[in-house]
TrEMBL record:
Record note on quaternary structure: Homotetramer.
Domain Aromatic amino acid beta-eliminating lyase/threonine aldolase per the UniProt entry, residue ranges: 3-294
Higher taxonomy: Bacteria, Pseudomonadati, Pseudomonadota, Alphaproteobacteria, Hyphomonadales
UniProt organism field: Hyphomonas atlantica
Protein known as: Aromatic amino acid beta-eliminating lyase/threonine aldolase domain-containing protein
Keywords: Pyridoxal phosphate
């Protein structure tokens, strides 16, 4: 009954098969290999456009920090939610990679930036006032850190407001698949069509071994060379990139990534419904593969004693994360512990 994180899940067998299939013959290095080049066609299909560039890394933190550093100068700031992964879970990587860029933390319920908070922050930007740190980027996360989803309409609205203040829009999509399944939106609708300029597209939590893709859309493509240079300098230019790309190839083929995200979301739904049916209240409406439950201490103790693994979260809730590998029977057993 391991609900600690979707990173606890194994990689999907098809990912390993693709890695094995890529493991033959000599290949060009540093992203010039056949597998990485073929990925362009798949990404073009998934995102419904040819107007993009891409880069692969093995961690979401590296992807976020590299992506943000291309758009936020050392004297600038990134607007993000106070609970954003870039703010609380990356040990200062965005600030480090940008050479001192500041994160400007915004509030809002359910892990989402509030519209008024965004407007207030945008109105404060003043490049002529030397003492304040002007924002250059708006960073949104979908699925959010509270397991809620921004709709396409919300992302579109926020991106338009940010663009009106000359900001670049970054989307942290470590759980993009979960958000797409839950909102019914396509990858195109939730990214460049909504105004997202740079996307960190996570496949690790969805079912890869370790594969995250940075996508630069449209005008953001002018940062391609800078992104590559920063990747090299920071040690994120894997010589044998074909093995990262093979993972992405397997995940994107036939929509496997969305099937796995749907599976994870379905398990979270089942867990959430079971908790609510037993009178447990949820801290947030589950719109992906994460459930945040307000469990009394005695139930937490009983669940832990029965072998359930999960973490306490901010605000007094307990976080339960489901993945493609979460089994029905584990959820049933978990709920039976509560019944007992
Ligand atoms: C997991 C996660 C990441 C990436 O984390 P890594 O452990 O560095 O791969 C980034 N953003 C969000 C919202 C996440 O949940």
């Amino acid at each position: 009954m391991n609900f600690s994180s979707d990173t606890s899940a194994p990689a999907h067998p098809k990912v390993l098969e693709a890695v094995l299939a890529a493991n033959s013959g000599l290949e060009s290095s540093y992203g010039n290999d056949r597998v990485t080049r073929c990925l362009r066609g798949q990404l073009a299909t998934v995102f419904g456009t040819d107007d993009f560039d891409y880069w692969l890394t093995a961690s979401g933190t590296a992807s976020n920090a590299l992506a943000l550093s291309c758009f936020c100068p050392p004297t600038g700031a990134v607007l993000c939610h106070a609970g954003a992964h870039i703010a609380v879970d990356e040990r200062g990587a965005p600030e480090f990679f940008s050479g001192g860029g500041k994160l400007h933390l915004l509030r809002g319920p359910d892990g989402k930036i509030g519209p008024a908070q965004l407007d207030e922050a945008l109105a404060r930007i003043n490049h002529d006032f030397v003492h304040e740190t002007p924002a250059h980027v708006l960073s949104l996360t979908n699925l959010t850190e509270n397991g809620t989803a921004y709709s396409v309409a919300e992302v579109t609205d926020y991106a338009a407001r940010a663009h009106a203040s000359d900001l670049i829009v970054h989307l942290d999509g470590a759980r993009l698949g979960n958000a797409l399944v839950s909102t019914g939106a396509s990858a195109a609708e939730m990214s460049w069509q909504a105004g997202v300029d740079v996307l960190t597209f996570g496949l690790t939590k969805t079912g890869a071994m370790g594969c995250e893709i940075i996508l630069l859309f449209g005008k953001a493509r002018e940062k391609k060379r800078e992104l590559e240079a920063r990747a090299k300098r920071s040690g994120h230019m894997p010589p044998k990139m074909r093995y990262l790309s093979a993972q992405a190839e397997a995940m994107l083929a036939d929509g496997l990534w969305l099937d796995l995200a749907a599976q994870a979301n379905g398990m979270a739904r089942k867990l959430a419904d079971g908790l609510v049916a037993r009178g447990v209240s949820l801290a947030f409406e589950p719109q992906g593969n994460e459930v945040f439950a307000m469990l009394p201490d005695d139930q937490v103790t009983a669940l832990r004693a029965a072998g359930a693994v999960f973490y306490p979260w901010m605000g007094g809730s307990q976080r339960f994360v489901c993945s493609w590998a979460t089994e029905d029977t584990k959820i049933e057993r978990f709920l039976s512990v509560l019944d007992a």
